[in-house]
Amino acid sequence: MRNFLKLNSLVALLALLSANVGFAQQAAPDVEAQTYQRLLASYGRTVVTVSYVLSFDAAGGAADQRAQGETEATLVSSDGLLLVPSAVLNPTDMFQKVYRNQGDGQVPNMRSSEIKVRLPGSDQPLEATVVTQDRDLGVAWLKIKSPPKNLPFVDLAKAIDPNVGQRAYVVGVIAEEFDYAPFVDETRIQGKIEVPYKAFISDQPGKMLFASDGTPIGFAVLRIDGTSNMSAGGNYRMFATVVGGARLKELDQRVRALSKK
Amino acid sequence: MRMQFFKAVLTATLLGAGANPALALEPIAGIPASMAIARDAVLPHVVSILVVREDFSGGEARLSLSGGTGTIISAEGHIATNAHVTENGQRFRVVLNDQREFPAKLIGTDAVSDLAVLKIVAPAGTVFGYASFAASVQDLKPGETVLAMGAPWGMRDSVSAGVINNVNRLMVSLFEDEADYEQSLNESQATARYYAWIQHDASISPGNSGGPLVDLRGRIVGVNTRGNVFGGDMAFSIPAPIAKNVVETLIAKGQVTRSDFGFGVRSLRGTGLTSGALISDVDRGSAAEKAGLKPGDRLLKLDSIAVNLTEPEEIPSFRRGLTERAVGATVTLDIERAGKAMALKIASVVQNDAKPREVEVPHFGISVIEVTTNVARARYLATTDGVLVQGMRTGGPAATAQPSVLAGDRITHVNGVAVKTLADFVRLSGSLPEGAESGAPLTLTLDRRGQNLLALLTPAPKRLIPPVNPELDKSWAGWEVQPVPVTLATELKLPEGGFRVTRVYPGGPALAAGVRVGDLITATGANPVKPSGLKETSALDLRVRNAERSAPFAVTILRGAQKMQVNLTLTEEPKPAEKTERRWNERLSITLRAITFYDRIERQLKDSQHGVILERVENGGYGGLAHLREGDLLVRVGQTAVKDLPGFELALSVAEKSGVDKLSFLVMRGSETRLLFVDAPWREVK
Fold it and tell me: Predicted ipTM?
């Protein structure tokens, strides 16, 4: 019996060894790669490009100055609702504090309009309107006027708040000359804000943040803080605040109601 | 006001020249000479001209105001002025020396001589006093005193005195290559191709353009046209006999027709040659080229008459002699090329120096010009078919077409239909129905530097005012605050920093909760609130704006030495000016918006005060002409009170239906109320 046990132990050990050897020979499953691939498959086509015309108010009856801009946005409904940083519509919002702390404190009036959306794989620009925005939180919702049916989207009804330190993933697209190929990047939730409103701190501004299982956990927006003249390369810093998933979910419900009006 | 200035010549040694002009000359041919005579002979007939210009920028037509001077030269009210004064003019008004003001219409313009004629629009039978151009200025000599009359910088009925510097001035410097000078003439100083100027030092400034240069015998000897960009004391006038001839032709025919033989000449200066003239350029495709004329040929005779042009000053009159021949006339050129003599016959065609017409096609987001012969030549085009894209509206349909249309593209077809002329293009581009958000996509065929491109363009209306983007409503406490950082608090002997209440709005939550000016807010709920700097109020503002309105908003306040907690029932934030609806009125070229809560506070307006606020006034539009100003509170149009934005449209249509000649506006500006007038747009004189 003892020998039998010994034999069994030996067989078991050999089996274990052989299994380990086999595992090593087949290459370990790359969990991170699978996460990236899953995120690309799920959300690669929810990131769209948005072009717009930026108007600068000119004083004294002079003509407005205008420029074209382009950014990316995330589809958050199958009927063409999009989430973008509100700074796309009001670019000076990011610089409010910088402006206030220098010169006469006047913030130039800049607005975006004539918004057009390009869906992945399509070269047809689609007109879009602004549904609403929350300039304090830094988020805005656009709506494609005549969207194709059943667009892929990030379901904010499933969004939850992240935890500080949690790994977060973003999906973006690269430049036009590379046919807006989607990519995944990762970051971490770096901190939490309690006042003036609840939010988180991270980087990857302008992008939706996901947990590794694909659950949306927030939307990051760029902030610029500073006290010196930016043109002189002064004392300013950039960071991203994240509107947490729970707040996004609540806002999403309000915005859907508005967009139906 | 757009005096064309030739490049600045810095001549410090001229300081003081003309500062003490002679007060009187010896009488010539029995005519007494004095400033008083000169003044009384011409000044009563000098008019100030106000021009509403339409210029193009970024594919869009824009109105602006400019001014100049003119002289009444007929009892019917013809006015001689510069072509650059009337250039791109859409509407003209003239103010006479006796203060009367009239609309005027354009009779004709001649860019080559830089002369134009307006005619006063006055009741039938009105007779005007007028002045005349001198038939000859042969007796005009350098050093003779002259007066410049006009409206420098818009200040009408101004007279300045100086002396004649040169009666045959070309602006070619001793140090400049003649060929470069020729080139510059084609680009910006066409006048000098055919005419030499009278140079004088009577002070002229922007606004003097088109005004008379008068000698002390009271003769108009020139039309002031150019000045020195840095002020100084150099001015240039078109000689009166030339002006007289051109102006009379414009009155009779509306245009000046000239012959074009397709070649240019230059003098022999610097060549070592002593007789003849040199052919400087031959236009591509011209009769001169077809006849075999080449640049560098030496011209010896023209129609058997010897040609000797040894100095640049001799060129303009030679050129002018050619252009004044009948269109279609043939000349014989005896030339010498590499030692060989030959004779060439060249027939003229009509000279086309007119600036190409530009039009805006707003639903395409472009402005285009016709392809004239000159434009085709300058751009190496083999045809004058199509239209040339001159400017594009950023983000407009052409800019976002696939591929983008670019400035410089020649549009040859619209939806496959050939575009020959500007009129073709305007017709083929069609228009968008009122209220349409976009039109059917169409294809444009483009010639882009020889490439044949197809572009898909979706017409869309021109949006003059970016829409105000909607926002989620926010909470409001009804106060204004100033930050009191700890350092300031210490100076003020306050125990801590916070935000000091500087204003409590009437009807707001703060007032209802008993908050007072001077209270120091130190915390909201359980969270202390501390300013980060002396200008930054967002730390408190953001807390208020993002607070739930379903529960009381607790605030800790320091009032004197007493600390207290108050609960505010926050309300929805009133809309600030930048978030209110704006409307553009095309007819008056103004942008209006509604009165906001904050306007009422700032301007101390009663709740019963109605009106709309002028957000923007285009200075060349009717609103600008009425002297409406940004910030004015417009309360009445004509006899109709303006309640709100739709009320403004209504009041304007009521005024139009009443058919009044003058449109009036009652505005509140600061502490004043003003009544302003403008000629009714529906009475426009074209």
Answer: 0.74
